[in-house]
């Protein structure tokens, strides 16, 4: 534990010894490196020149001064430097190509009206042509795409490197790269590369991508967190009005509504290859708005984008994010067709705050496009064929293939990863990151222990409860996975347990099977239904602190199985079969008695049932080839339809019934106004069944917020056999609070919610009830509404949320053992950013 604490301390803090050690890169206005540039500290003997890649390194005994950068044919630049100077990115302008009519507009202290801003005319022309420029102008196209994703540790000082490399330090310091600040160091720990060919048919709107080769190396296999982080950067389409980033809607600087969010400055114009280019800078109007800062070059006449750079403004607080930057480059052909040539994304992640001296994680994603061929069509059937990856090693190539296409920089990175991935300190550090992110602790036996968040709980039946869970984990793409838990209650002095095994039976078509056994306590009144989840994971037994008494738990012993078939990506059909024995966990406090058809009072239900479900999640980003898939952070709708059939007499089943249920979730991006998360649920039970098989409206007696539950209801306040529920959460993402001068400094975000439920219970189901729960259905609409604040915390750790909640009036039935609920409450929620 001491070692882990020491490693965590090294990750989140560091002390820098600053001196005038200068490092940087000199490029022209199109980001082409310029070699042999003179770099001199004025009035001193200290100087150097840039290398073939435009890079320079200069170390002096001075503490401040003026750095002069000069080269024939370019304008000389003079830059003030001091101990605080970081890595220098210097752009030299060509003196001979400078236009006499250069337009220079400073960012006005007073916001310019659209017609007064010279950038507005250019932006209007861009908007007109957004759907007419680019590859959309040709009928057919093809190109080669190279993608690399790199993850590394940043802001590392020499003390940290000595701890890692020890006797190898002197050799390692020659190979380790400088970080972006030019003072500290950066160590890559994971690198994946992919080569593919893309074919497009605009006539029929078809795109085909054939992967040619894949390679990955490093410590990404320890858990899901690095995989998830490496997929943070999906394709960022700046030509759309809204850019979805980390489930937040950012306004694009090229949006037709951009002037509501940005201040634009037409900085200058140049001539390059007989084409006039305009350089436009953009800045968020208000600090904290979900917007970017950067600039883009626009080609005159056709008004296509030549190059764009932007970054997330520092005033925006994203959990664990210190910085995000994006760069896109295009090539213009035939004066009208712009084609992408490069996409570069980079993220800087830290745990505590955005302090530049703290250690963190860097993620780099680079995509290059080359070998374009336009209007050379293939047969129409060619574009509809899809080659789907079904095995982890499907696109593996020999080293000779990669040696022929990899750059020297890529080869050096792989060599360094091979060296560091075996270091214990790096393994411990990356393992710690995985544990913090996932809740699971890695072991050397191919088993992970966790999740830690459910290790302790408390309820009236078990008293203080401890739980230890596990899952097998060899790689992220395991075809077989075994998970389970063992729990103990110190009040009832009973041991509970459960285990679930999943196996990927077929890669293509994708077929997964699962089986589970459980003997544990569950809170049946906490959820309406699930599909492929076999083990009960209800929060009713995992909360450490709760409101009021809760004796309404059930002892459940069950055997369950699942068969899941993927028709196509994000469309699944499945079949479950379950045998469960259900009875009250505290019969003296909570009766589940009912009258059977013989008129005898029974206290136990044997539920033998089957489920057939259809799950559809169009647009969801899915990755991974193992039995457990991983999902990206993009926004997508969810449709689930489930039909359950209960069997009487079959394997001693006590009840015959039918139940049909439907759930629809739709996040809606509302541009600068935020995001609305809407969920609808409906269901009906056909047949006469006891309380164990009915549909209680999901309640939540814990002090934390739980999705799709009602906070001011007790368990079994409402019991239905037909129901309709809606849950609506709108997150303003700073749209309101950023406009209030004093509050905007706190970086808080506002939200509102509305939840409602309606339902009925049949006379037949009421008649067989011998429980001490007097059935009460919400046949008059029950609803809860709230206002809340989120993004609460310190530094980068701002994942807390507080809601003030009110409810409508309702009266529990006379003689009910369910206690009255409060009409108002304050609740806390957790909403991680990744």
Polypeptide structure, described:
The longest helix has 15 residues, at 424-438. The chain is mainly β. The protein is built from 10 helices and 44 strands.
Into which percentage range does the β-strand content fall? 35-45%
End-to-end distance, in Å? 26 Å
Structural class: mainly beta
Task: Name the helicity range.
Answer: 10-25%
Mean pLDDT across the residues is 84
So what's the overall shape?
A: elongated
Our count of helices gives 10
* Computed CA radius of gyration, to the nearest angstrom: 31 Å
Q: Which residues sit in consecutive blocks of at least 5 with pLDDT less than 50?
A: 1-18, 96-106
Q: Tally of extended strands?
A: 44
Q: How is the biggest beta sheet arranged?
A: 18 strands, antiparallel
Secondary structure topology:
Elements: H1 2-12, E1 21-27, E2 38-41, E3 47-49, E4 55-59, E5 64-70, E6 77-82, E7 88-91, H2 118-129, E8 140-156, H3 158-165, H4 169-175, E9 177-178, E10 185-201, E11 206-218, H5 225-230, E12 242-245, E13 248-251, E14 262-272, E15 275-284, E16 292-299, E17 305-312, E18 321-333, E19 337-349, E20 360-374, H6 380-384, H7 399-405, H8 408-420, H9 424-438, E21 441-442, E22 447-449, E23 456-459, E24 463-472, E25 480-489, E26 494-506, E27 511-522, E28 554-568, E29 571-584, E30 594-595, E31 601-602, E32 604-616, E33 622-623, E34 630-631, E35 638-646, E36 657-669, E37 675-686, E38 695-696, E39 719-720, E40 722-731, E41 749-760, H10 763-767, E42 782-794, E43 797-807, E44 824-830
Parallel strand pairs: 1-7
Antiparallel strand pairs: 1-4, 2-3, 2-5, 5-6, 8-10, 8-20, 9-10, 10-11, 12-13, 14-15, 15-16, 16-17, 17-18, 18-19, 19-20, 21-22, 22-24, 23-24, 24-25, 25-26, 26-27, 27-28, 28-29, 29-32, 30-31, 32-35, 33-34, 35-36, 36-37, 37-40, 38-39, 40-41, 41-42, 42-43, 43-44
């Amino acid at each position: 534990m001491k070692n882990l604490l020491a490693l965590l301390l090294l990750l989140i803090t560091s002390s820098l010894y600053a001196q005038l050690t200068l490092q940087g890169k000199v490029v022209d206005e199109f980001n082409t490196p310029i070699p042999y540039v003179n770099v001199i500290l004025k009035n001193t003997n200290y100087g150097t020149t840039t290398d073939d890649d435009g890079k320079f390194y200069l170390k002096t005994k001075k503490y401040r001064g003026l750095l002069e950068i000069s080269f024939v044919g370019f304008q000389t630049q003079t830059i003030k430097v001091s101990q605080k100077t970081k890595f220098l990115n210097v752009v030299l302008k060509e003196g001979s190509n400078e236009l006499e009519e250069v337009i220079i507009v400073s960012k006005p202290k007073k916001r310019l009206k659209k017609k007064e801003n010279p950038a507005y005319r250019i932006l209007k022309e861009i908007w007109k042509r957004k759907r007419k420029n680019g590859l959309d102008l040709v009928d057919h196209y093809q190109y080669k795409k190279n993608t690399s994703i790199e993850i590394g540790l940043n802001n590392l000082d020499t003390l940290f490197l000595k701890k890692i490399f020890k006797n190898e330090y002197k050799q390692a310091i020659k190979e380790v790269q400088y970080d972006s600040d030019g003072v500290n160091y950066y160590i890559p720990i994971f690198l994946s590369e992919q080569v593919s060919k893309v074919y497009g048919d605009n006539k029929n709107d078809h795109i085909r991508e054939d992967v040619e080769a894949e390679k990955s190396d490093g410590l990404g296999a320890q858990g899901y967190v690095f995989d998830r982080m490496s997929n943070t950067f999906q394709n960022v389409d700046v030509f759309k009005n809204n850019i979805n980033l980390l489930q937040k809607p950012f306004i694009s600087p090229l949006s037709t509504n951009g002037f509501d969010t940005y201040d634009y400055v037409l900085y200058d114009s140049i001539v390059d290859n007989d084409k006039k280019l305009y350089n436009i800078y953009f800045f968020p109007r208000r600090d904290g708005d979900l917007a970017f800062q950067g600039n883009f070059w626009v080609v005159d006449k056709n008004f296509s984008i030549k190059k764009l750079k932007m970054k997330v403004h520092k005033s925006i607080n994203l959990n664990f994010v210190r910085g995000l930057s994006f760069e896109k480059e295009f090539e213009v052909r035939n004066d009208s067709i712009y084609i992408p040539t490069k996409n570069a994304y980079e993220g800087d992640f830290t745990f505590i705050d955005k302090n530049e001296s703290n250690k963190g994680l860097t993620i780099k994603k680079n995509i290059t496009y080359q070998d374009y061929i336009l209007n050379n069509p293939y047969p129409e059937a060619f574009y509809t064929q899809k080659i789907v990856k079904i095995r982890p090693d499907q696109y593996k190539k020999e080293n000779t293939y990669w040696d022929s296409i990899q750059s020297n920089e890529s080869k050096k990175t792989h060599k360094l990863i091979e060296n560091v991935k075996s270091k214990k300190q790096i393994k411990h550090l990356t393992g710690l990151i995985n544990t913090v992110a996932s809740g699971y602790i890695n072991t050397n036996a191919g088993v992970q222990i966790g999740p830690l968040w459910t290790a302790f709980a408390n309820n009236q039946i078990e008293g203080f409860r401890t739980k230890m869970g596990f899952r097998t984990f060899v790689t992220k793409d395991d075809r077989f996975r075994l998970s389970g838990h063992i729990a103990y209650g110190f009040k009832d002095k009973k041991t509970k347990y459960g285990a679930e095994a999943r196996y990927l039976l077929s890669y293509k078509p994708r077929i997964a099977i699962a089986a589970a056994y459980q003997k544990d306590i569950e809170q049946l009144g906490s959820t309406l239904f699930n599909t492929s989840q076999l083990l009960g994971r209800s929060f009713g037994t995992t909360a450490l602190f709760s409101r009021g008494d809760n004796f309404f738990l059930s002892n459940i012993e069950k055997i369950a199985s699942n068969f899941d078939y993927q028709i196509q990506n994000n469309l699944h059909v499945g079949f479950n079969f379950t045998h469960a024995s259900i009875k009250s966990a505290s019969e003296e406090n909570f009766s589940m008695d009912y009258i059977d058809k013989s008129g005898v009072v029974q206290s136990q239900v044997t539920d033998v049932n089957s489920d057939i479900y259809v799950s559809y999640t169009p647009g969801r980003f899915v990755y991974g080839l193992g039995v457990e898939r991983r999902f990206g952070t993009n926004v997508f709708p969810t449709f689930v339809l489930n039909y359950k059939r209960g069997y009487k007499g079959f394997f001693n089943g006590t009840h015959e019934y039918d139940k049909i249920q439907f759930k629809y979730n739709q996040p809606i991006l509302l541009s600068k106004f935020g995001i609305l998360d809407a969920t609808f649920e409906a269901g009906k039970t056909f047949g006469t069944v006891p309380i164990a098989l009915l549909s209680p409206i999901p309640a939540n007696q814990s002090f934390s917020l739980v999705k799709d539950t009602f906070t001011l209801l007790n368990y079994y306040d409402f019991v239905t056999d037909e129901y309709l529920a809606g849950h609506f959460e709108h997150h303003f993402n700073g749209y309101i609070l950023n406009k209030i001068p004093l509050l905007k400094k706190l970086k808080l975000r506002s939200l509102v919610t509305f939840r409602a439920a309606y339902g009925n219970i049949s006379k037949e189901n009421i008649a067989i009830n011998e429980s001490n729960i007097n059935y009460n259905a919400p046949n008059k609409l029950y609803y809860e509404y709230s206002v809340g604040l989120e993004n609460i915390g310190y530094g980068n750790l701002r994942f807390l949320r507080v809601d003030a909640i009110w409810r409508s009036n309702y009266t529990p039935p006379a003689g009910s053992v369910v206690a009255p609920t409060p009409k108002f409450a304050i609740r806390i929620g957790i909403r991680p950013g990744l």
